[in-house]
Amino acid sequence: MNTQNHKIEEAKRYLKKFEIVETDVELPIQGQVRDPEDLYAFLKDLESEHVPKIIGVYLDQNHLFLGHQIFLGQTSATFDTQVFYHYYLMFLAKRFVILINHPSGDSTPTEDDVKLIKKFQADVQVLSFKPFFADFIIVAKKSYFSMATNDGTVGHSDHQEHITKF
């Protein structure tokens, strides 16, 4: 096999790894995502988790859910934003929300959470594809913190009154 044919075959094998497959699987979030309550399915799942998780939720320009990626065992101190942006680009997203659980039961942002928020805020200023950082939500037992509230208050699952829109 000549070099040209070899390269073509190699490219075909590579592209097969990324084949898009249609399925009848229902998305966990339907419609627009405009506030933390719209992400209730994820919030509820994270409430009782004992393993640290970070979930990237990817949205289009109309706040419609495109997909999500779960980073199991990750904490604010260990999370690599470069991996997150890989999935952001793969979903062709325009906006994103970060969900993180606190197995400790306290949804107050830690120093590491604040550092990670600042890292995302710095990233969106310098990245050429200009992602929109919509919210950073910390979920704990029966409560959550949403960066989008702008006042640092802790809300309770199923009921948070003063959530500002993304």
Quick recap of the structure?
It comes from Candidatus Giovannonibacteria bacterium GW2011_GWA2_44_26. Pfam families: RadC. With 166 residues, the protein is α+β, with helices and mostly antiparallel strands.
Describe this structure in words.
This is RadC-like JAB domain-containing protein. InterPro entries: RadC_JAB. It comes from Candidatus Giovannonibacteria bacterium GW2011_GWA2_44_26. Pfam families: RadC. The protein is α+β, with helices and mostly antiparallel strands and 166 residues long. It has a single domain, classed as Cytidine Deaminase, domain 2. 29% of the residues lie in helices and 22% in strands. The chain has four helices and six strands, in the order ααββαβαβββ. It has a six-stranded mixed sheet, sandwiched between helices. The C terminus is likely disordered.
